[in-house]
Amino acid sequence: MSKNVRADSLSLLLFTLRSGKLMAINLLKVSEIIPCPPLTRLPESHPHVKGVATLRGNSLSVIDLSRAIGERPLLDPDGGCLIVTDVSRSKQGLHVQAVSKIVHCLTTDIRPPPFGSGNKSFITGVTQVDGTLVQVLDIEKVIHGIAPARIAVEPTELSPEEVEVLTKARILVVDDSQVALQQSVITLRNLGIECHTARSAREAIDHLLDLQGTAQQINVVVSDIEMSEMDGYAFTRTLRETPDFQELYVLLHTSLDSAMNAEKAKAAGANAVLTKFSSPELTRCLIEAARTVEAQGI
Questions:
Q1: How far apart are the C-alpha atoms of 220 and 199, rounded to whole Å?
Q2: Are residues 121 and 186 in the same domain?
Q3: pLDDT attached to residue 179
Q4: Tens-digit pLDDT profile for residues 122-132
Q5: Rounded-to-integer distance, Cα 63 and Cα 140, Å
Q6: Does residue 199 sit in the same domain as residue 282?
Q7: Where among 111, 146, 181 does a domain terminate?
Q8: Do residues 36 and 68 lie in contact, with contact meaning Cβ atoms separated by under 8 Å?
Q9: In what residue span(s) does the CheW-like domain sit (predicted)?
Q10: Which domain holds residue 130?
């Protein structure tokens, strides 16, 4: 199987905090950019939440991004602007120093974080823009630190048929966000399923090759879309073009609105697409995946 990286285009919104170093967020996760409005501080709110803004009649929680990722506070705590994001079924405002510009690049231009970044890092990748290092923000990790996704701690109520069919699924979960990866793994463990994991498409391909022809040969792939080097679409197309992996069931799991990605996911060859993070919905998708691979004898 070829490990050549497939390149898709990607748009990044560049912004700065107090240090002035450039950071970025996937433009598809941004709904708008506004000057920082007056905020209402709520008692007993999370310390990383600056307050609540009213945006066209709706309440919007505003995250002090500097504090959330361990940076120094902004020089003007009431200045700067808000990057309003739409991620994982919720909207939130990120308070930043300033927005710089939008740049267009290839997913292959985004490299994994430097070795040794550790679990405390809030970046999923790095790239170069005009010779300057840019860090790509792990927005899912920021949000999880403030409002963790609710994951059932007790096994989900399943029918005997559903329990039986899930034993047919041998699953590989692929996500460059450690938080998002763990959310999926916990859901699977609550279902009594152990799975393999990978932090990139390259690593996933290695796992698929290593397990091919063994009792643990993968038949279901649950992959993030917004990954560095090779995104979920390119990864899916690579699988579909490889004879040994053409029949794998591929579920693309995205922090973006899945309806927006459905057509592109289908064109890439994915079987299904799901917005993060809903433990019950992921469970339903995995049951459907397991039924499909059982019917196809994969």
A1: 16
A2: no
A3: 86
A4: 998 999 999 99
A5: 13
A6: yes
A7: 146
A8: no
A9: 9-148
A10: 9-146
Print burial letters for 66-98: b (CB count within 10 Å at least 16), e (below 16).
Answer: bbbbebeebeeeeebbbbbbbbbeeebbbbbbe
Measure CA of the first residue to CA of the last residue in the chain; give whole Å. 19
Question: Distance between alpha carbon 149 and the CA centroid of its chain, in Å?
Answer: 13
Q: Are residues 142 and 166 in the same domain?
A: no
pLDDT digits (tens, 9 = 90+) for 275-290: 988 899 999 999 999 9
Which tokens go with 16?
């700065």
* 178-190 and 139-146 helices, crossing angle to 10°: 60
Identify whether residues 134 and 238 lie together within a single domain. Answer: no
CA angle 164, 167, 171 (to 5 degrees): 145
Tokens found for residue 253: 């799991």
- For the cut 50, the answer to whether the pLDDT of residue 3 exceeds it is no
Number of residues in the chain: 298
Number of domains in the chain: 2
CA atoms within 13 A on the CB side of 162: 13
